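Open question from group meeting: does this chain pack into something compact, or does most of it stay loose? Before anyone orders reagents, we agreed to write out a predicted structure and look at it together. Recording both the input and the output here so the notebook holds the full record.
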Amino acid sequence: MTMEEARWNIRIPLEIDVKVRIAPAIHLKAKTRDVSFEGMLLGMSLPKTTNNASVVVRFESGDRPMQAAAVIVRTGPEGTGLMFTGDSDEVADALAMMMEPELDRLVQIPRKPTERPPNK
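C-alpha cells returned:
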C-alpha cells in the first residue's frame, strides 16, 4: 500500500505560503497545492534524495506564526508531499480554520432551480 492509498483525511485544495526548513542550512519558500490534517502537497519538486528527510514547515494563521514537523514522503513533477509527524492541537486548529471555507464550498448540496436558499 502506498502513502497515497493510506490517507485517512480528505485533501482540500488550498494555497498557503509556507517556509520549509530541510536540515539546518536549507530554507525554501513554497505554496501548498492541497492540505489535510495529515500533511500537505507543496507546489514544487525537490530532488528525490530528499525523500524521508525531516523538515519543519512554517506558515501564518491569521497573525499567528505556526510550525509543524513533517517528513518528505514523495516528490515528483506534481509537487512534494509532506506528512506531519507531530501532534499539535494548535496546528490542527489553525489548519481547520484555513480549510473550513473551501470545505464548505466543496460540500454544498446542489439545489433544484426552484428552491430558495434557507433564511439565515
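Observations to bring back to the group:
The domain at 4-104 is CATH 2.40.10.220 (Thrombin, subunit H).
The chain has one domain: 4-104.
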